[in-house]
Specification:
single chain, 176 residues, mainly beta, Immunoglobulin-like, five-stranded antiparallel sheet, rod-shaped
């Protein structure tokens, strides 16, 4: 989330027409088109965050700036060239790193929270725990995972929570 992405089209010489057909998760479909015979571009219902990366007559790659969950969906490039028609489809998924919080509950137990990540994060503890994580889904597709450390022995001084996620791993330690 927040980064940019560049999607490429099939590399064909003698392109006569290129069309990006975009069906985002939120909002209606949009198209970006280019006709070589008129050296003309056209856009229909596309937000300002989607545009040609370069000049479409040289390279018809699509750049998506400021990626967000709403821009997830299918992105298809259709190229019409002298040797035929070619398609390439991408299914864009946006990763959202969770916010890691580690605190002590009212009973002195460490609680690790990985908030609003996409997909759901995995929580583990450096020392063995018989904790069962709880997940809470949100309307925007993110998930909060909560894990309470329950030790087998009570002579613990410092515990470390490890959050594993495709957008990056995090860890924090606490003494309760």
């Amino acid at each position: 989330v927040g980064y940019s992405s560049v999607l490429t089209c099939p590399p064909k010489s003698n392109r006569t027409m290129v069309t990006w057909k975009i069906s985002p998760k939120v909002g209606g479909p949009c198209t970006l088109g280019y006709r070589a015979d008129q050296n003309k571009t056209d856009r229909t219902n596309c937000s300002g965050s989607m545009n040609w990366k370069f000049r479409p007559d040289q390279d018809p790659a699509l750049e998506i700036r400021q990626l967000g969950i709403a821009l997830e969906g299918n992105y298809t490039c259709e190229v019409v060239a002298t040797e035929g028609n070619f398609h390439k489809t991408y299914h864009l998924t946006v990763l959202v790193p969770p916010r890691l919080t580690l605190y002590c509950d009212d009973h002195g137990n460490p609680v690790c929270e990985a908030a609003a990540g996409k997909p759901a994060a995995q929580i583990s503890w450096v020392l063995e725990s018989n904790s069962t994580p709880k997940e809470e889904g949100h309307d925007n597709g993110t998930v909060t995972v909560l894990s309470k450390f329950t030790a087998y022995s009570t002579n613990m001084t410092n515990t470390t929570c490890i959050v594993s996620h495709p957008a990056g791993n995090q860890s924090k330690s606490i003494a309760c």
